[in-house]
Amino acid sequence: GRERERRGRRRERGEMAVGKNKRLSKKGKGAKKRLTDPFLKKDWYDIKAPSIFTKRQVGKSLVSRTQGTKIASEGLKGRVYRVSLADLQGDESLAYRNIQLKCEEVQGKSCLTNFYGMDFSRDRLCSLVRKWQSLIEAHVDVKTTDGYVLRLFCIGFTKRHQIQIKKTAYAQSSQVRAIRKKMCEIMTREATSCELKDLVLKFIPELIGKEIEKACKWIYPLQNVHVRKVKLLKAPRFDITKLMELHSGAGEDVGAKVKSAEDVPGSEPANDWSAEVEA
Questions:
Q1: Among the residues of 104-172, which ranges form H helices?
Q2: How does pLDDT run across 32-59, given as a tens digit for each residue?
Q3: What DSSP element (H or E) covers 116?
Q4: pLDDT tens digits, 59-97
Q5: Rounded to an integer, what distance in angstroms lies between the CA atom of residue 196 and that of residue 146?
Q6: Which of 40, 176, 225, 231 would give a disulfide with 213, using CB separation of 3.0 to 4.6 Å?
Q7: Structural contact between residues 252 and 51, judged by C-beta atoms closer than 8 angstroms
Q8: How far apart are CA 81 and CA 51, in angstroms?
Q9: Residue 229: is its pLDDT beyond 50?
């Protein structure tokens, strides 16, 4: 009874017996960790696009510095960057298309990328879908001459004839099948006859879409025909020399157009050789 009274008095006075409280005995062990900025242990790397695009400098990528067995370049390889085609080509009219670039090699402070896929922005697709017309879609798996397996998705819409009075422009199911077949044929033909870099150069100005529109006008007139999506299914064995060729732009740079003597004011074309021949 007396012991209880003593404890009660100690509680009132705010005194506690040392050794009874576990928190007091572990005072020195729970010291706070020193907080450091995580960005001090990271480095910035430049993302380089292939030479098929106008603007090579895409952006920056962040990675932790090499520490022990964890190498910085290994952390960068395999990263996929999504970039607007407007930024790559310097043309705002191409902003509705996004290009995916995959980092395949690291050289110094640069990440060398290769084409990995293409996609349309959602708002662009939504703006194309309207009433009173048929939507036709097709997809096909193709293999380029350099061994890349791609899946191409095509989209197109029917349109009214020039002299049509009827409000709607719906295609019959047989016509839709014929158009879809033609889409697959043209995509296969265009993709299997060239390398990946040449195929990307066809995607940028929408050459395949225009070709489909031209070929299908005899079945049913079409409008807004696009290769809306490209997925890379399988890539060949990694070859550093091919990647370096893609980034060096060897054989790609044809130079600026030189003005002829006729275009320059105050100059006459040199016709000495032709005059001698006539003589």
A1: 122-128
A2: 677 888 888 899 999 999 999 999 998 9
A3: strand 110-120
A4: 999 999 888 888 888 989 999 999 999 999 988 999 999
A5: 7
A6: 225
A7: yes
A8: 16
A9: yes
